[in-house]
Amino acid sequence: MQRANTKTYFLKTFGCQMNVYDSERMAEALARDGYSQTEDVGNADLVILNTCHIREKAAEKVYSDLGRIRDIKDTRKRDGKETVIAVAGCVAQAEGSEITRRQPAVDLVIGPQSYHRLPELIVRAETKSEHIVETEFPGDEKFTAMKAPRRASSPSAFLTVQEGCDKFCTFCVVPYTRGAEFSRPVAKLEAEARELAAAGAKELVLLGQNVNAYHGEGPSGRAMGLAELIRRLADIDGIERIRYMTSHPRDMSDDLIAAHAEVPQLMPFLHLPVQSGSDRMLTAMNRKHRAAEYIDLIARVRAARPDIALSSDFIVGFPGETEEDAEETIALVKAVGFAQAFSFKYSPRPGTPAAALEVQVPEDVKTGRLHRLQALLDEQQGAFNAKTLGSTMPVLFERPGRNPGEFIGRSPYLQLVHAVGDGNFTGRTANVAVTETRRVSLSGVIPAA
Ligand code: 5AD
Ligand code: SF4
Known about the structure:
Blueprint: E1 8-13, H1 17-32, E2 36-37, E3 46-51, H2 56-78, E4 84-88, H3 89-95, H4 97-102, E5 108-110, H5 118-127, E6 132-134, H6 141-145, E7 156-160, E8 162-163, H7 174-177, E9 182-183, H8 186-198, E10 203-207, E11 215-217, E12 223-225, H9 226-234, E13 241-245, H10 254-262, E14 269-271, H11 279-284, H12 291-304, E15 309-316, H13 323-336, E16 340-345, H14 363-386, E17 392-400, E18 406-410, E19 416-420, E20 429-437, E21 441-445
Parallel strand pairs: 1-2, 1-3, 3-4, 4-5, 5-6, 7-10, 10-13, 14-15, 15-16, 19-21
Antiparallel strand pairs: 8-9, 11-12, 17-18, 17-20, 18-19, 20-21
Helix pairs in contact: 9-10, 13-14
Bound molecules: 5'-deoxyadenosine and iron/sulfur cluster.
C-alpha cells in the first residue's frame, strides 16, 4: 500500500558496490512509500547514510558527517521541521547502539540484513522518541522481502548474488558486519536479471563479498557454482556482458576458469585480491593461499583467457611486516603484471584478530611502502592501457561526456573510455578505435557505421 507522503530523503553511500546495490534497493522501497529523493540535505525529512566499516577512515568519516547533519537537524527544528537521521550499512552493523551514544541525534541504526524493514522502522522512528537499533541477521528474508528493481539506472547493473564471508582474514570486518556466507537461489537471480535486462541493462555485475564461493540452490535443488550461474545468466536476451567481484583465490574453480574461455559474455577482467606477496604475511592474515599458488592460479587463468585484465587488492604494513615481506609483494606484482589494483595501509579494526597484535608497523613506514607499491602498480596500469593503442574494442557507453559528441563507457577490460561519435551512444555498445591512452583512461573515436 502506498502511504500518502510528500516527504523527501537524502541518501549518501560510502564504500563498496554492495552498498551501492543496497542503496538502490532502499531508494526503490522509499519511492514505493511515496518519498522523493533530494540532493539537498538541508531539505530532507529523512537522511540516510549507508556506511562502510572496512578501514578506520571510512568509519570516522561517518561521524564527522553526522555532526554536520545534527546541526542541520537543529536548524530545521527551529523552523518547525522534523528530520529523521538513519545510519545503515556496516558501521551500523558493527557499532549498533554505540552510534546513538556517540551521536544522539541519530534516530535509527539499521544493519544490512534489515533493509526490507526500513519503511516500517522509519514510521516507528517518527512516532517514538527512543532510538531504534536493528541489527539482527535474519538470513534470506531481506532479498525475499525487497522487490526486484523496476528500472536500470545505467546499462551496467549490479546484482547481489552472494553476501557475507566465512573466510575470516584476520584484518577484515566483513565476516562480522555482513555475517555468514549466503548465496541467493539461481531462480531468483534469473528473475531479477531478466527484469534488469527488460529495464535496459546490458551488463550484469554479479556482487558478493566472496562471490566465487557462490553455491546457490539450482532449479533441481542441487547447488550451482558461480560458473554455472554465469552460463545461465549469459542466456538471457539482452545481456551482453557479465562481470563478477570480489573473488578469493581459494575459490577460483576450474569450471570458473573454463568459463573465461568459453562464455563470450564473460568479460576478460578478474579482480582477485592477493593482499601480500609474503607467505609469512599471508599466513598471519589467514588468507589460506601462498604467493606461489596465486602466481600459478594466474597462469591457469591466462591459459584460458590470455588477454585477461587482472586486478587485485593489497594491504601494506600488516602487523609484523618487514622490509623483506614488502619486497616479496613488489616481486609478486612484477611477476604477475596487473591492469589495475587497489592498495591500502593496514588499518586495525576493532574486534578483528590482527588489531590485537602488538607488532603494529609505524605509520610512516606504511606510507613509504604504500607509495613504492602504488608507483609500480601505476606504471603497470599505464603499460596495460598503452598496449591497447591503435586497437579497436567494443565499448559499452554509460553516459554522455562533457564535450559535444563525446560518450563515456567501459572497454571489455574495464578501462574507462572517452570517445567521440556521430549519434547517441548512451546505453549502447559500439566499436572504438583507440587513439590515445593515459594511466586511468583511453580516448578514441567511434567510426561511422
Ligand atoms: N586495513 C586495510 N585494508 C583492508 N582491507 C580490508 N580490511 C582492511 C584493513 N583492516 C582491504 C583489503 C580488501 C579490500 C576490500 O579492503 O585489501 O580486499
Ligand atoms: Fe574479508 Fe575478503 Fe577475507 Fe572475506 S575473503 S574475510 S571479505 S578480505
